[in-house]
Amino acid sequence: MSSRTSAPEDQYTAEPFLPERRTLTGLREAAASCRGCPLHRDATQTVFGAGNAHARVMLVGEQPGDQEDRQGKPFVGPAGKLLDRALAEAGIDPGDAYVTNAVKHFKFTQSEPRKRRIHKAPSLRETAACGPWLAAELAVVEPELIVVLGATAGKALLGSSFRVTEVRGTVLEEEIHGRRERLVPTVHPSSVLRADDREAAYRGLVEDLKVAARVLS
Q1: H helices within 46-121, ranges in order?
Q2: Which pLDDT score, from 0 to 100, does residue 1 have?
Q3: Which H or E run includes 211?
Q4: Is the pLDDT of residue 3 over 80?
Q5: CB 96 within 8 A of CB 88
Q6: Residue-wise over 9-27: b if at least 16 C-beta within 10 A, else e?
Q7: How many other C-beta atoms lie within 10 A of the C-beta of residue 71?
Q8: CA distances from residue 167 to 105, 158, 170 in whole angstroms, order as listed
Q9: Is the dihedral of CA 119, 125, 129, 132 positive or negative?
Q10: Per-residue pLDDT for 2 more than 50?
């Protein structure tokens, strides 16, 4: 067997890279060296979750974007700023939340060096490979509620049949990684920025987040 075939990223699982000691600090440090799928090759760095380690609400998005990849922190780009505004308007303090992504490396296309890097959706295989990190975050934080931001996060947590348009703004109860969880799905804030009617899309996001706020009240 060639070394190419046996490379860790070809096994498509982050499991071997998880540390024995499961704290957020330990997980974050270990994730920096993750090679559980090929996405680590082109990304600048791993972008792990951040926020309150004892948060009542965990927000799960798709993957880091361009700014997140450069800064090493989740939700620091335009979509993150919009999300913070929507959370505050819905009655959830962004500083009390824990934010993370289903996939921890930025996947993108680029026509040539120094050109803008264009977001590319991770595959189900890549999302599944990153699943152990998300499971570990859930086990450490133990949130009362998960806000699911968009289709990729929904598929990572609830399976490939998940459709955000069918369940957004509702409260779901499902077993996730061996724990009974309550979830409120909504759209990803980046979809609001791309919407033809941005104001209507933003209002819809806020209304969904108000459902989450009521669960937490």
Answers
A1: 66-71, 78-90
A2: 38
A3: helix 198-216
A4: no
A5: no
A6: beeebbeebbeeeeebeeb
A7: 14
A8: 27, 12, 6
A9: positive
A10: no
